[in-house]
Specification:
Number of helices: 7
Helix content: 55-70%
Strand content: under 5%
Number of strands: 2
Radius of gyration: 21 Å
Largest sheet: 2 strands, antiparallel
Strand order of the largest sheet: 1-2
Shape: globular
Distance between the termini: 44 Å
Structural class: mainly alpha
Length: about 290
């Protein structure tokens, strides 16, 4: 299955059932036969050449599995990337004021940081191996952007909206994780195709809206980010983010169960960070519209 996040797109993770489970049995190096796995792109385990993968002839690992990705690795790397985002966001909040005298300069730095973060994300996405320094640099620049935007929303719309957006993002993460573990969400090929098609359509609509906003004196474009339509598209954005989380959980678990190299945990952390940033921004935008209309 191809991942929702570009960082997983060449990894070829697959499973022999339609969805993943945290207690699933470790597949063998040969992998399931083509046709039994709805996500399979070939008949072999993508990590069959890994010396820590299962040996199908001996029926036992060739050596101790000390260099493969684990859930603990993913959790620790994700904590590092998200921690970097939070720290730099807090610094930007306090060091880049958004009062009338400085808001132009602060916005300029935020936009520049967002562009750098985007470039770093694209570079990492096309690298064959993860680069921790590159991933943490992305998190740092993304945090600067989020810090300035959050400070502006808190100053000009509602002081409590940022805390609400953070809590909302945490609630979405927890809810999707519980639903995934309880098998309420089944990540199938159809699910994946639907999410990707919806995401492409959503992004294209937002891009068109942004282009029109450049020629609109009010900066509202086609109205997709304000009023009733803004609320609707904000909810859709959050739902898409939740779907991306389910795909990310599937990819992480496939990597663990197929004996992916430990370095892949950095890519897992990167993908989860991208998704959580998406959800936070959509949550912040939605709450801003709701509270701005009060």
């Amino acid at each position: 299955m191809r991942s929702s996040n570009p960082v997983f797109s060449r990894r070829g993770f697959s499973r022999d059932n339609g969805y993943a489970g945290f207690n699933a049995q470790q597949p063998q190096a040969g992998g399931p036969a083509v046709g039994t796995n709805p996500y399979a792109e070939g008949a072999t385990n993508p990590y069959a050449t890994n010396p820590y993968a299962q040996d199908t002839q001996l029926g036992a690992p060739q050596q101790a599995r000390g260099n493969v990705m684990t859930i603990d690795d993913v959790v620790s790397r994700t904590a590092m990337t998200l921690g970097t985002v939070v720290v730099t966001a807090a610094l930007a909040w306090f060091l880049l004021p958004v009062d009338e005298a400085n808001i132009g300069k602060s916005y300029g730095i935020a936009v520049g940081a967002a562009l750098v973060a985007f470039v770093l994300a694209m570079v990492q996405s096309f690298k064959r191996k993860p680069s921790p320094a590159l991933i943490l640099a992305y998190a740092a620049f993304e945090g600067v952007f989020l810090g300035v935007i959050s400070a502006a929303v808190s100053t000009y719309i509602s002081p409590g909206v940022v805390a609400q957006a953070v809590l909302g993002t945490m609630a979405v993460f927890a809810g999707v994780l519980i639903a995934y573990k309880m098998r309420w969400i089944r990540v199938t090929r159809r699910f994946y195709g639907f999410v990707m098609a919806a995401a492409i359509g959503f992004i294209l609509l937002m891009a068109v809206n942004a282009i029109f906003s450049l020629f609109d004196g009010a900066g509202d474009g086609l109205g997709f980010r304000s009023g009733g339509l803004g609320i609707l598209f904000g909810v859709i954005g959050i739902i898409l983010g939740a779907c991306f989380l389910a795909l990310d959980f599937k990819q992480v678990e496939d990597g663990v169960n197929y004996g992916a190299p430990r370095e892949e945990s950095w890519l897992a952390a990167f993908g989860l960070t991208l998704t959580l940033v998406w959800i936070y921004l959509e949550m912040l935008r939605l709450l801003s519209i709701l509270q701005g209309d009060d």
